[in-house]
Each structure stands twice: as C-alpha cells, then as structure tokens.
TrEMBL record:
Protein name (record): Na+/H+ antiporter subunit D
GO cellular component annotations of the record: plasma membrane
Principal place of residence: membrane
Record-annotated NADH:quinone oxidoreductase/Mrp antiporter transmembrane domain positions: 131-414
Transmembrane segment boundaries: 6-24, 31-51, 77-97, 109-128, 134-151, 163-187, 207-232, 239-260, 272-293, 300-322, 328-348, 369-388, 408-430, 461-484
Subcellular location as annotated: Cell membrane; Membrane
Superkingdom per UniProt: Bacteria
Phylogenetic placement of the source organism: Bacteria, Bacillati, Actinomycetota, Actinomycetes, Pseudonocardiales
GO MF entries: NADH dehydrogenase (ubiquinone) activity
C-alpha cells in the first residue's frame, strides 16, 4: 500500500516524459494523458478507502524514516482532495483534447501542452501528499513552471502581460516561502510537518506568531485571499478555457490545503482566529462586490473565485473540528463547480466570440444544452438547495454558529456573500441566455490558442463539461457519506495525533 502513495507523483511525471517522446503522434499523446490520469484517479480512490478505514498511508522515500527522510502521506484529507482534483483534471484534459481536434484537426500533435499538463498534475499531487515543508516548496515550483508555460502558449501581448504579473507574484511568494522554511529550520532543525508539530510548540510565543503569520501570507498569496488577491483577476481570464478551469479549480485550493495543513498541525490555536475571521469576511465581500462590477464573464468568475476562498478561510478561522471539516467539504465542492463554470464560459465564448456579457444574448434559445450546463453549476455556486454548495455552506454555518459570537457574526457575512453570488449568477443568466439573440462576433485574434465566434461547438466538449456537472450532482447525492468522511478528516486535523503517529510512529510521538 505504501508504494501506491508514490504513483500519483511518479505516473504523471513518467507520462509527461512519454508524451515528449511521442510528440509527433497526437493519438499517443492523448492516450497517455487519459490513461495516466484515469489510473491516478483509481489509485486515489484506493488510498482514500485505505486511509478512511485505517490509518494514513505513509511512504518513506529512499528507505529513510521521518523526520530525516522525505515522506509522502495520504490521510483522509489528502486522498480526498487528490481524488477530486484528478477527476477534474481528467475532465479538463478531455475538454482540451476535443477543443484542439475541433480547431486544428485530429492529427495535429502538441509538443508542449500534454507534457506540461501532466507536469502540473505532478505538482498538485506532490503538494497534497508531501510530509515536509521543503518538498511542498518543490511542488509549488513545479506548478509555477508548468502553469507559466500553459498561460503563455500561442502567446499575445495581453497574455504575456498577465503571465508576467502571475509569475512575478508567484516568485515573490516562493521567495517568502523559502525564507520561512529557512527560519523554521534554523529554529527547530527540522522541516518534517509531523516533527514540527512538537518542535514549533517549544519555541518562544513571539517567534511562533511570526512564523505562523509568514505561512499565512505565503499560502494566502497562492490562495488569492484579500488583500493578496489582486493578481488573480488579471491573470486567469486571459488564458484558454481549459487552462483557466484547471488553475481556478486546483491551484488556489492547493494554497488553501497548505493553510489547513500547516495551521492545524504546526500552529494550532485554542479557539477562533480573529485575524482569519476578518480576512475571510473581507475576502467574501470584496470578491463578490468585485464580481458585480464586471462585464467580462471570465473576470466576473475570477472575482467570485476570490470571494469563495473566503468561505474556506472562514471554516479554518473557526478552528474546531466542525469548521475544518466544513472547509474540507467546501473545497471538494468548489474544485468541481469552479472548473465547470470556466469550461462553460469557454463554450459561451466559442459561440459568441466575446467575453462581454452585454454583447451576448438569447443563448437559451440557440443552445438550450449550454443553458443547462451553466445553470446547474451557477446554482451550486450560489448554494441553492439541494446542491452540493448548499450542503457545504450549511456545514460552515453550523460550525460558525456553534463557536461563539464573533464566528456567528461572520456566518452572517457568509449568507450575504451567498446572496451576492446568486445575484451575480442571475445577472449573467438574464443578459447571456435571455433576450434577443445576438450574432457572434468575429475572432479578435485568429493567431492565439483559441478559435472563437464560430456559433458552434464540438459535441465532445459538451460531454466533458457535462461530466463535471455530473460529478457536482453526485457530490450532492452522496452528501451524507461525504460529510462523514470530511468530518473524520476534520477531527484528524484538529487532533493532530493520527498524522503524527502515522509518520513518526508511536514510540516517537509524545
């Protein structure tokens, strides 16, 4: 079982190398990507069952035990997020393949997309599974390198500008992260997460606070929490739909996961965090209000992405088992629904030739299937019963209402931000899908990665998007068992002991 933990990292890396070797065969490249992600999904499912029924599954790389060696750890939270992330990555890959076939033909291969896409999957898997801070830094750097290539493929001046913003902010965050790791190692002599759970507690309180705040800033930048969010609405909307969907679905959630892991394991609190409650409230409101001011559909969705990062921060800020479990459940829901909305935005742009909401109209008449594909994730994001968004928000509200006055007040902000999200989605629906049909605009940049304004879309792209909608609906249907799993995951993170015992062993765990 320990060997299985390494496969989600090794298989995409090996697949990336194979797609380079077969760069002249489009069919082989596509087959490798699909098979690799399908196998990783199956492995993640096995790891989730094993971790939920027993203890976390640990792999000691090179035979060196923790805390000296590098370990990969699949506990309930890591395995669950790995499973849902890989399923979303597979659906996005199918969408991207269908889009490329429709635009360039079935025999046109790509020398960069498939290997870089799988390399990004490697980084995401490593971030979820790693058991030490430095390997987490390596995972973020893998994701940064891969995402920069994806965001600037078939580039234009606008995309280069947005890509530079993304890279500069990411490099700044990486430099700060590396500095934080150096300070942690200088103070404790370790970077292993389970080992740091005890060693950091022995440091002076002031030093603990400084290190905790540094990790919040580092991962807050990557998660795009307010006021460190400004790079996201300028970067994501300019990438092709599959790339934006993957970034929105996964990369910010890896930042949230890193916050969950480090704040609960290394810097635990005795009660709600006032700082995080304030940040969560500002993130929810500023993101939602920013979305209402947008005419660009992708920028609107990007601001809503920022807003809903605040929901996840709220569960962490409550800082009890219920709040952490609510955040885990919300991350699972949001990975799926946010990726789906950006894929639907790509389908809309393909038909209309524009991202301007005011320049669209009447799509419900010309493409009822597209209307359905938008309506379901839009209602889910707003948290309308009985969607997965409603279940996840209900878990957060229950946790907040039961943790004291200040968390109850922020729970009210959750409800307000949800209403603003609903208003933004209704606004998009009325302007894009109702009213008189408007003719598609011509492609403003025929040389870029995406062909738009065709007034048609390849049916397989609808199928890939529909598959993600089905995943979101499945999450709602299995809300009971899934909530039980996230509840146990939240309890594990809050208690810390199961993770420490799995990594260090009982004899080395206080």
């Amino acid at each position: 079982m320990s060997a299985l933990v390494t496969l989600p990292v090794l298989l995409p890396m090996l697949g990336a190398a194979l797609t380079v070797l077969f760069s002249r065969s489009a069919f082989v490249q596509r087959l490798i990507g699909i098979v690799v992600l399908a196998v990783v999904s199956a492995v993640a499912a096995v790891l989730l069952v094993a971790a939920d029924q027993g203890a976390p599954v640990v792999a000691e790389l090179g035979g060196w035990p923790a805390p000296v060696g590098i370990v990969l750890v699949a506990d309930r939270l890591a395995a669950l997020l790995l499973l849902i992330s890989t399923l979303v990555t597979l659906a996005v890959l199918l969408y991207a393949i269908d889009q490329r076939i429709a635009d360039y033909g079935r025999e046109t291969a790509s020398t960069t997309f498939h290997p870089i896409f799988l390399l990004l999957s490697t980084g995401v898997s490593l971030a979820y599974l790693t058991g030490d801070l430095f390997t987490l830094f390596v995972a973020f750097e893998i994701m940064l390198a891969a995402s920069y290539v994806l965001i600037t493929r078939r580039t234009s001046a606008t995309r280069i500008r947005s890509g530079m913003t993304y890279v500069i902010i990411s490099l700044t965050s990486s430099l700060l992260f590396l500095t934080t790791i150096a300070l942690v190692y200088a103070a404790t002599g370790s970077v292993n997460l389970a080992d740091l759970a005890e060693r950091v507690g022995e440091l002076p309180t002031g030093l603990q606070t400084v290190l905790a705040l540094m990790t919040v800033v580092v991962f807050g930048i990557k998660a795009a929490m307010v006021p460190l969010h400004f790079w996201l609405p300028d970067s994501y909307p300019n990438a092709p739909a599959p790339v934006t969907a993957l970034f929105a679905g996964l990369l910010t959630k890896v930042g949230i996961y890193a916050l969950l892991r480090t704040q609960t394991l290394i810097f635990p609190l005795d009660g709600p965090s006032t700082l995080l409650l304030v940040i969560a409230s500002l993130t929810m409101l500023i993101g939602a209000l920013g979305a209402l001011a947008q005419d660009d559909l992708n920028r609107l969705l990007s601001f809503l992405l920022v807003s809903h990062i605040g929901f996840m921060l709220f569960g962490l800020a409550v800082f009890d088992a219920a709040g952490i479990a609510g955040t885990a459940l919300y991350v699972v829901h949001h990975i799926t629904v946010q990726a789906t909305l950006f894929l639907v935005s790509g389908l809309i742009t393909r038909r209309t030739g524009t991202v301007s909401i005011d320049a669209m109209g009447g799509l419900a008449k010309t493409s009822p299937a597209l209307a359905v594909l938008f309506a379901v994730p839009a209602l889910t994001l707003a948290g309308i019963p009985p969607t997965s968004g409603f279940v996840a928000k209900l878990a957060l509200l229950q946790a907040g209402a039961g943790a004291g006055l200040e968390t109850s007040l922020v729970a009210g902000v959750v409800i307000l931000a949800s209403l603003l999200t609903l208003y933004a989605m209704v606004r998009v629906w009325v302007r894009v899908f109702w009213g008189a049909e408007k003719p598609p605009l011509t492609d403003p940049d025929p040389t870029d990665e995406l062909i738009v304004g065709t007034a048609r879309t390849a049916k397989p792209m609808y199928v890939a998007t529909g598959a993600l909608v089905a995943v979101s609906l499945t999450i709602a249907m299995v809300a009971g068992p899934l909530s039980a799993v996230t509840g146990r995951a939240g309890q594990d993170l809050f208690d810390r002991a199961p993770y420490q015992v799995a990594v260090l062993g009982e004899e080395r765990t206080p």
